[in-house]
Amino acid sequence: MRSEFARFAVLISLFGVLMCPKPMGLLAATGDDTLHGSVDEALVGAELLKLADSDGEVRRDAIQWLANSKVGRVGDALEAYRLGKLYFWQGKLVTATPVEGSGSKNLTLQDALTGQPIYQAEATLLDPPLVVAKADLKSLVASRKERRAVVDAVRVLALYAEDPAVRLNAVKKLGDLRNADYIDELEEVCNQDSNDQVIFRAKESVALLQLIDTKKDLTVRQHAAKELGEMASARAGPLIEDLLENENTDESLRKVCQQSLAQIESYQGVVRVLGYIFSGLSLGSVLILMALGLAIVFGQMGVINMAHGELMMIGAYTTYEVQQVFGHSMPDNPVNEFFWVALVVSFFTTAFVGLLMEKLIVRHLYGRPLETLLATWGVGLMLIQIVRIRYGDNIGVNSPTWLVDGVEVFQDFHLPYNRLFIIGLTVVCVAFVYLLLNHTKRGLLLRATVQNREIAATLGVNTQYEDGFTFAFGAGLAGIAGCGLTLIGGVTPDMGQNYIVDSFLVVVTGGVGEIAGVVCAGLGLGVLNKVLEPMFSTIWGKVLILAFVVAFIQYRPAGLFPPKGRLADV
Asked: Omega into 416 within 30° of 0, i.e. cis?
């Protein structure tokens, strides 16, 4: 027997039918998650309310009706029902969020259909949402059969979500399920959606499902295989390979599949190469930021700073501390401003640590490169152990929300925003260093000290001050590199050791003290590293790069950009 909930829902439905000036039917599939008028909203709400009915058949019929409603937001309510997070309260279906600090005893409520907070009857927009005790809510629990039906319904309803990214993900999922029952829904998306990318992926999914549907006419399957080849569909590659390996595949279909697979592999090969190049550019950007400081310090002071990688690590941990101060977390409490502050704080923090190193240790070892190398290596080990004691072995830094996604330049070629940002950050830092060295008084004094320390001192240049400034400035650049590296990698105490050798290779290959050499060598070694990794293992790739650098130095001992004129003898 139907409960009072069912009677209430039926009355609302009849009222909606009587008040509607035209016959009520299923909502049009426009791809727009908008309920067309209050009558439609009432009808959908009435069907949704049937989920609280005690009769299982009524609930299953309601789920089927809601699946066919093509109202994307209904999917959230059904998913909450499947997970046991849907509640009945005072004649409404609601979802609930625990009040902070109360555990799960006190909850704020949201309307299950609209997701809007529920307020007291006479509350204004300035009043807080209504808070109720969990005991006042009736939890709705779906049966196993209902959960299976809800999963299918949510998959289809996602095709009509308001967010294009949700619709795009939905058409991909339905195509990957290899269930030909979804062809009609996907074809409807192709005809009615307004987003070009969603339409393209929907057509791709339709072709995938038609290709595997053995009940389809052979001509239809051949056309689907040909269309996937023309699309250069990466998703179709494994499926076509399976068909070619199947001995029962028709010979005419096999021929079309072979042609399509060749088209797909050709296009995807180009995409992979471009991906390697872009990844190499982002890796090269990190190496450039690291090597800039090394090149300036080694060029002026002749100091091989083996703790430079640990200075980068300090920049990364400084970024973590700034994140903690701002309370930035994803996705609960995004505070994107923290990252701009972290860039500045990382620079000055590592610059200060570098200045202390120069004042306390490095200054007393000038002219003794071996002792300087060993001393800075020991300082690096000390910094690693200090950080490990304080933070442990691994922490995480959350990227700002505007760096989480990426842009698809063309089909299957994605450029992540975080790597684009690192490349842009490197361009800004290189430009700043160039302007500082070539168009400021500080840069003039620094270059004079590099060219001839003794003559610069006789002309009144405080070379000790210049040494301290140079070491601190180079350390600060390493701190910026560490801050940028948190966007693409983990933060560990020994993270700097993964980059210090490559950074020295960049300095030696580019030419000591030459900014142009650092840029060219950094980008070149970064791209070469990423191109060799897929062909060989990571270790063998680094061995080959080292062998290449050794051979190059034999040919050009002074690097890509050797000093000219009087500087060549310095």
From this structure: no
| Separation CA 351–CA 469 (nearest Å) | 9
- Of 249, 270, 302, which one is at a domain's C-terminal end? 249
In a domain, 260, yes or no: no
CA distances from 7 to 47, 58, 94 (A): 12, 11, 19
Question: What is the pTM assigned to this prediction?
Answer: 0.77
Domain that holds residue 135: 4-146
Please indicate, yes or no, whether residues 371 and 502 belong to a single structural domain of this protein: yes
pLDDT digits (tens, 9 = 90+) for 371-424: 888 888 999 999 999 999 988 888 888 888 888 888 888 888 889 999 999 999
23, 62 in Cβ contact below 8 A? no
φ/ψ (deg, to 5) at 117: -60, 150
Q: What is the pLDDT of residue 27?
A: 30
Quote the CA–CA distance of 488 and 508 in Å, as a whole number: 26
Please check whether residues 324 and 176 belong to one and the same domain: no
Q: Which two tokens stand for residue 569?
A: 């003898």
- The pLDDT, as a whole number, for residue 562 is 65
What interhelical angle do 251-301 and 218-231 show, nearest 10? 20
Cα(35)–Cα(28) distance, integer angstroms: 10
Nearest to 236 by CA among 246, 224, 250, 251: 224
85-112 pLDDT tens trace: 898 888 888 888 888 766 667 888 888 8
How far is Cα 545 from Cα 528, in angstroms, rounded to an integer?
Answer: 8
Judge if 343 and 421 occupy the same domain.
yes
pLDDT digits (tens, 9 = 90+) for 318-364: 999 999 998 887 777 788 889 999 999 999 999 999 999 988 988 88
Contact 199, 189 (CB under 8 A): yes
- Own/partner long-range contacts of 304-307 (Cβ < 8 Å, ≥24 apart): 304/369, 304/372, 304/373, 304/376, 304/504, 305/362, 305/372, 305/376, 305/471, 305/474, 306/373, 306/376, 306/377, 306/380, 306/500, 307/357, 307/376, 307/377, 307/379, 307/380, 307/383
Which of 347, 340, 329 minimizes the C-alpha distance to 482? 347
| 106 in Cβ contact with 133 (< 8 Å) | yes
Length of the chain as a residue count: 570
Contact 253, 221 (CB under 8 A): yes
Please answer whether residues 77 and 112 qualify as being in contact, where contact means their C-beta atoms are separated by less than 8 angstroms.
yes
